[in-house]
Please model this.
Amino acid sequence: MTAQHDTPPDSLSSTFAALADPTRRAILARLQQGEAPVSALAEPFAISLPAISRHLKVLERAGLIARSRDHKWRPCRLDADPIREVAAWADSYRRFWEESFERLDELLVELEQEDATDDDGE
Amino acid sequence: MTTANSGRLTITVQGDREILMTRAFNAPRQRVFDAFTKADLVQRWYGPRDWTMPICEIDLRAGGSYHWVLRSPDGTEIHTRGTYQEVAPPERVVSSEQFEGFAEVGWRPEDASINTMVLAERDGQTMWTATVRYPSQAVRDGALQSPMEAGMNESFSRLDELVATMS
Model:
């Protein structure tokens, strides 16, 4: 596993990606109740601690959680701002389709240009 | 930059278990139909911009199936599968749609929807209409929240209170 830290992608889409996984959503739901050590977060899931750690890294990179540096157990807690950003991004169903359809608009223009080029022959 | 006459997406509920979506595209109907039904074209637009579509299999005939996979920048994959029930180019496609990997109402395997896409051309523009029919109203309402919101929605009010006390 190599972590990619080079250029952070735009924060909204990394938030979206982090939230696309059911285990990570469950972890966040648990953290709504307060900060917790990794072992407590792993408890409800039938997966290994390393697997939980990978999920936590994704959540941390997306800025959804923060982990204490100065505590032996490095408990995790929610980082509220990106989640508020998601909350404000109220209708992600719509957002998914709007962004896809903007891309489709662009594709349709490209296809028209490709057609025009084909019609020119040579 | 969006073109002046690119359409606005409308999403409304219809009856107690359907979602109705409409969107105008500035292109002839056949081209829009191709963009929704040819795998190499679907891969060029479906999903958020920085996601990829590593798998897009489409067997476009009644009884044929499809398998779409979206991959996020961090490698999370969303699988969608379904079967085509009616295929009438360039006007209409009816298919089932089922997601894998979600536990939230509206997105579980048993919440599969029946989707009807209709394309109508007028003045060189194509109106796309999609009707998504779910097994029940509860499932439809869950789907409208989107998986991430369904998973987190109930926590938001508590979180808002928390943030209010922090500021």
